[in-house]
Amino acid sequence: MTVESRPIHEIAKDIRKDWTKIDPRTNEYLKCLERMDRVNDMVGMEYGDMVVAHFLAFAAPRWRGEVARKIKAELNLVLQQYNLNKFGLDTTSYRG
Q1: Which site from 6, 52, 72, 79 is most exposed, i.e. has the minimal number of CB atoms within 10 Å?
Q2: Is the pLDDT of residue 10 over 90?
Q3: What's the number of domains the chain is made of?
């Protein structure tokens, strides 16, 4: 089952609104998210799914709270669906 996702740049807008003290490394990935519509977009020479994955890796230990949990879950779902559709990989059992 595929769930329709919001554009990535809208998710990024919600992140920016909630998370006010973003470290510089994570902020670079957030800037890329702000330029994306979908996870399969390219941002410069970077694949969109990798941008989302790297953002989540850097944001996971630093960004907390209810909004953070909801948005991280939303981005993880987007990645899971992308991996399932593109590669036939079910990544729901991975909890990184």
Answers
A1: 6
A2: yes
A3: 1
